[in-house]
Amino acid sequence: MTPFSIILLFYSIMTGIGFVSMWRDKRQAKHRAWRTPEATLLTIAFLGGALGTLLAMQLVRHKTRTAKFQLFVPLALLLHLTAWILWMRL
Asked: pTM to 2 decimals?
């Protein structure tokens, strides 16, 4: 595997984890069950799951009014996109 394909696989997995984590937390909120801490959801976003987290925010309408998520999830996505662009220029 090339370094590019490894990184692409990593981001694909993290995107899935971000989406599923947000979807599951929304489902748990509806059932008044144990919730995933916000810090965990944001950590997943900053570790590479920002795209999945942002997609889930919009598709399942979860954490859309929470200021932390409105600010930090797009910021995490922007940081990762910037890193990708800089890496591709090398």
From this structure: 0.93
